[in-house]
Amino acid sequence: MTSTLITNIGELATLDPERDGLLGIVTDAAIALEGDRVAWVGPAHRAPAADAAIDAGGRAVLPGFVDSHSHLVFAGDRAQEFAARMTGEPYSAGGIRSTVAATRAANDEQLTSQVARFVQEMRAQGTTTVEIKSGYGLTVRDEARSLAIARQFTAETTFLGAHVVPEGMEPGEYVDLVTGPMLDAAAPYAKWIDVFCEQGAFDADQARAILRAGTARGLGGRLHANQLGPGPGVLLAAELGLTAVDHCTHLTDADVSALRETGTIATLLPGVEFSTRQPYPDARHLIDSGVRVAIATDCNPGSSFTSSMPLCIALTVREMGMSPAEAVHAATRGGAAALGRTDIGTLAPGRRADLVLLDAPSHVHLAYRPGVPLVAGVWTGGRPRPRV
Fold first, then answer.
1. What's the rounded Cα separation, in Å, for the pair 231 and 160?
2. Domain 66-338 has CATH 3.20.20.140
3. Which residues, given as ranges, of the chain have pLDDT below 70?
4. C-alpha–C-alpha distance, residues 326 and 308, integer Å
5. In the CATH hierarchy, which top-level class contains the domain 3-62+347-385?
6. Please, are residues 26 and 12 in contact by the beta-carbon 8 Å criterion?
7. Domain residues of the chain, as ranges?
């Protein structure tokens, strides 16, 4: 088994809770990789010998970003919808249906090629784990094939047949389809099940029925909630003990208390607010209230067409009241927790060797220099990856 030592690291953010501080920073550091795992972490002058050595040149290293919410399996373009929003039209979920039509018309090769491009974009910007949802097929065949395509790129696949009710179907009829034949077809390719619990999509009772059906098939539950306005979704996520609930833009005191008491993670998606001009979630209040927080891109063609976790970190710091350290934590350990993972998001012996080398001396530069391509190297499972 080949070993690699990355040494002369100016700042190593381990995110190891056994170390001091939120990011578990080690300065003048080194990290040893063996196979697909981290073998050793510590001061460079104590580093073990290895088969190969890489000089980080005093730059910063941190865990690979964990993007726990994305919608990459789709076809079509909604740039005109974005342009209209920028001139004053409000955002609504109705544009999803135009993407559904384009996705149904695309063949598997076209969809696979597009997902590969987005995953490559993400990796070049430091993302080493990505969750990918279905949700733009909304037929038994198209939801299953969307998940089969997603599974080629990640084990973190989510069945989102309950994105919206497709045209020509009644809500009750469609819920029966999602919880019956569609779930049967999708479950072999999915790890998670999700519902868009918002006005104009699915109400709390419908969402509860869908999530319980998925749980009965062995899928973990996730939820889109409280994005477009106050609603029952966050309380439903807490009631069902979901690992994470995503968006969390419009929260009541009861919502915040429920998240804190149950430990359900609030996954915040700042690219959405940037792209829709909606109010940003109050991340500062959530953190100060003891709620666990993750951030993700929500990469999708309608409301957040970005694949950049560094951009989301910068937005979170600038617009949502988080410190750079809190934002990095939310993009790494937070994202891992939102996926129920303990093997990623942390650089410690025995954890997966997914890491990022920044062309900067500190993690702070991710927010300090927004829009600058700072990722100088990416390793996944101990292997350096080309940044094409």
1. 19
2. yes
3. 91-94, 387-388
4. 17
5. mainly beta
6. yes
7. 3-62+347-385, 66-338
